[in-house]
């Protein structure tokens, strides 16, 4: 989700709004949860899910839970400015990784 084409513009959209860090974080979590559910439904509908993919997803659940736990622990200690800076720096890293990898195959 973080490197998806829809992610960075949506993050910038929410960061540019008048809401504080807790509201922005909550909105981003809801947005990405919803888009992932829609994606999973679409993949299932088109027959793109199988046991191998399910096994990989299951293996990554502990990593996801650890990241969610660490993020919630970190969030309560960061200021409004720190939250925005950290989020923008993450977007810069995502952009640099995308540029260095060549952006993938277009066609």
Notes on the structure:
With 107 residues, the chain is an all-alpha fold. The chain is built from four helices and no strands. Helix 1 (7-15) runs antiparallel to helix 2 (21-45). The protein is globular and about 45 Å long.
Task: Please describe the topology of this protein.
Elements: H1 7-15, H2 21-45, H3 51-75, H4 80-100
Describe the structure concisely.
This protein has 107 residues and is mainly alpha-helical. It has 4 helices and no strands.
Provide key terms for this protein.
mainly alpha; 107 residues; 0% strand
CA-based shape: globular
* CA distance, first residue to last residue: 21 Å
Query: Helix and strand succession?
Result: HHHH
The portion of residues assigned to helices is over 70%
The tally of beta strands, per DSSP, is 0
Question: What is the overall pLDDT average?
Answer: 85
By secondary-structure content and strand pairing, the structural class works out as mainly alpha
Largest pleated sheet: none
What is the count of helical runs?
4
Cα gyration radius (Å): 16 Å
Strand residues, percent: under 5%
Low-confidence stretches: none
